[in-house]
Specification:
This protein is α+β, with helices and mostly antiparallel strands and 199 residues long. The protein contains three helices and nine strands. Strands 1-9-8 form a three-stranded antiparallel sheet, with no helix packed on it. A three-stranded antiparallel sheet has the order 2-3-4, with no helix packed on it. The protein has a three-stranded antiparallel sheet with strand order 5-6-7, with no helix packed on it.
């Protein structure tokens, strides 16, 4: 075989090797480029669902969890609190049936919750964004003798009942927001995922 003769097997081997090495290089180049399209960990955390442990939440207490940069309250209502909601004078509320308020369909009821015992709310007044005080005691002196328990906004005097429904005649225009949520177990719920979401 002369020096000028071409070995087709060697040429195929070199061509195949070049293609494989080129493909590996292209993949290594593409990975960082494609991953730059993914949201950052911070962006994921801002809107990501959060798990809330309610195993130690006693009746009449509230736990606060942050979701999307806002406080989310989980209140475990007592039987007395639920009775007070049943006997509430609907004419004292701006939107008693929650028809003009933001909540998932499964929370569009007198308790504004999936399970009557647990209330889940975004803890922000619908007037100008202050955080109302949780005053669960009926007849609390700072709110008045007719108070049946609920949330009082000290900024401008808006009042909400123990379902987050706004009283009539106060600055807040609507009921407090009920975020999407679902129960994972009897002692854990996830805020930011709807009840119908797959487990």
């Amino acid at each position: 075989m002369s020096d000028d003769a071409v070995d087709p097997r060697r040429r195929r081997f070199l061509t195949g090797t070049t293609v494989v090495i080129g493909g590996i290089g292209a993949a290594f180049t593409a990975v960082p480029f494609l991953s730059s399209f993914q949201p950052s960990a911070k962006a994921k955390a801002i809107g990501a669902p959060v798990e809330v442990d309610i195993s130690k939440l006693e009746p009449g207490q509230r736990v606060v969890q942050k979701w999307r940069g806002k406080p989310v309250w989980v209140v475990r209502r007592t039987p007395e609190m639920l009775e007070n909601l049943k006997s509430f004078d609907a004419s004292a509320l701006r939107d008693p049936k929650s028809e003009k308020s933001e909540q998932p369909e499964y929370a569009k009821n007198d308790w504004r919750s999936d399970k009557p015992e647990y209330l889940v709310l975004v803890g922000i007044c619908t007037h100008l964004g202050c955080s109302p005080s949780f005053i669960p005691e009926a007849g609390a002196p700072e709110v008045g003798a007719t108070w049946k328990g609920g949330f009082f906004c000290p900024c401008h005097g808006s009042k909400f009942d123990l379902a987050g429904r706004v009283y009539a005649g106060v600055p807040a225009p609507s009921n407090m927001v009920v975020p999407p949520y679902r129960f994972l177990t009897d002692t854990k719920l996830i805020v930011g995922e709807d009840k119908g979401a797959a487990a």
